[in-house]
Amino acid sequence: MWIRGVMTGSGKICLLTGASHGLGLALAQELVARGYQVLGTGRRPHAELPADFPDCAYLPVDLTQADAAPRIAAWCARQVAGPLPLAILNAGAGRYRPLSDETAAEMAEVLQINFDANVQLAQALHPKLQGGTLGLIGSVAHKGAAGMPVYAASKGALDGFGRALAEEWRGTVRVRVLHPGPVATGMSERAGRPRDMIDSLFLSPRAVAMTLLDRLNSTRGPDRQVVSFAQVGGHMLWRKLAGGAGR
Amino acid sequence: MNVLLTGAASGLGAALLRACIARGDSVCVIDIDARPPNLPDTVTWLQHDLSDTDPALWDRIADAIAQQDPFDLTVLCAGISATGPFETISAHAHQQVSRINLHAPMRLCLILQQRGALAQGGRLVFVASLSCFTGYPGAASYGASKDGLAAFARSLRRPMRRAGVAVQLLCPGPMDTPHATRYAPKGARADRRIAPQTVAQMVLDAPRARFVLVPGAGAKLAALLGRLAPAMMTRIMGRVLFAKLKDQPR
Ligand SMILES: NC(=O)c1ccc[n+]([C@@H]2O[C@H](COP(=O)([O-])OP(=O)(O)OC[C@H]3O[C@@H](n4cnc5c(N)ncnc54)[C@H](OP(=O)(O)O)[C@@H]3O)[C@@H](O)[C@H]2O)c1
User: What CATH number is attached to the domain comprising A82?
Assistant: First the structure.
């Protein structure tokens, strides 16, 4: 099978940030469907989890708090005795607006959630991730986006971080930076982009989640990958032709 | 000309400051160090720790900036690094790199824009690094901060052009400055590094229309190879640079 499991005898376990909504929720659902034990985190409390949140552990922790990374790592250590085979750092935030409409505090918050928190998490999880895979969820905006300069900067930084880390950790932890195109999670509306025709073209969270997981599980492919229309479309078509492979 | 410089106490910033003084500019400096003696009156020196997150301090800087005439040239030079295997560097050091190299220049841009401190027809130069083309294993948070800055500059390019400001991204390779000497692997040859005066002059002479500025033939070649074969260049950086940094006692 061309889709390979990450498990190396240590079970299918995945730590997933931003599991409470959007793409992370779709990732959590897909992981559970594939038989993973998921350790999900998000900002909202348990009581506000969506109705279709899958059957998995959940820790509410705000990534803008200084002790977020050590808290998540400690929780992870309590839940998982052995090594952690997979961590997906997916939590993210951003606003669709020009620099002139930003505030210093909100700018710092987006950088912290999308970039600094992931640096802190990578460091805190490093001992437990030995032999495993670290997936960083970026965005196609990492190359720059006139409509959302702060978000683009945070994702650009994440890309550069993953690029260096993949090389440093080669042979011990597999690092992948995956850059999704626009996903229909409501993030962009909440981010302030007006709803229009273009929204109907956004990728489905489930299709993106499936593609991301298969990319993370594959030992092949470059460290940094774009997962947008062409890749997701091609991947879903391939799965259909292969008869729902991978489950 | 009215010039704003960060990190002008040493390295590239100091070279720029000297060159600007020599051509008669009035210069406003933001630096963590105190004002050095013997600077002419045309230099305003604001002492400020760019890693400080206290809003009151930033308000002070914003007010001081607003008192100046709009800047024809802004060069955001201030930066630090942290080298070695990522996981062996303290979380605090990584955070300082992110604050000084990424958060601070973005915050300054916000201030400059909101206070109308960028002159029409002027230039805003972000100092990134050649690592934007090659990746930087051995300085993961530093490389990240510079890539973040590059994405920020790319995003601002069009909106700023509409406001009459040219945004530019300077990507120097190793310079012969205290910064490079501090962070390079032991035994690295200083004579191969480009002089900060040369880079400073290139910045001052750069045509407005050019976005990416890569000083020196060696760096230009590395940038070209990085564009053509990014993954290969990162592997090479890993072999020649990270391998040395990893093995050296710190
Ligand atoms: N949607 C897109 O078009 C798109 C495109 C490219 C890349 N991406 C990236 O994909 C990832 C997921 O995006 P999405 O569209 O699924 O966004 P989303 O629907 O807004 O979900 C974001 C997730 O991150 C969590 N989160 C946000 N701020 C947090 C904080 N301070 N502390 C802890 N958790 C926090 C949220 O938790 P709560 O809901 O509990 O607050 C939520 O689970 C992000 O990294 C995003 O940048 C999205």
Answer: 3.40.50.720
In a domain, B250, yes or no: no
- The boundaries of the domain holding residue B101 are 2-245
How many domains does the structure of chain B reveal?
1
Task: Enumerate the residues of chain B whose CB falls inside 8 A of the CB of residue A222.
Answer: 231
Domain residue limits at A132: 13-240
Query: Do A161 and B141 lie within an 8 Å CB cutoff?
Result: yes
> Cβ of A163 under 8 Å from any chain B Cβ?
yes
Is residue A116 in a domain? yes
Contact B101, B142 (CB under 8 A): yes
User: How many domains, chain A?
Assistant: 1
B36 within some domain: yes
Q: Is residue B33 part of a domain?
A: yes
Which residues lie with the beta carbon below 6 Å from any ligand 1 atom?
Answer: A 18, 20-24, 42-44, 62-64, 90-93, 113, 137, 139, 180, 182-183, 185-188
User: Which residues are CB-neighbours of B105 under 8 A, at least 6 positions away?
Assistant: B6, B76, B78, B126, B149, B152
Strand arrangement of the beta sheet that strand B212-213 belongs to: B43-47, B26-31, B2-6, B71-76, B118-127, B166-170, B212-213
CATH, residue B52: 3.40.50.720
Interface predicted TM-score (ipTM) of this complex, two decimals: 0.96
Residue A86 lies in a domain: yes
pLDDT tens-digit map of A126-140: 999 999 999 999 999
Give tens-digit pLDDT for A153-174: 999 999 999 999 999 999 999 9
Chain B hits for A164, Cβ within 8 Å: 86, 135-140, 143-144, 234
pTM, 2 dp: 0.95
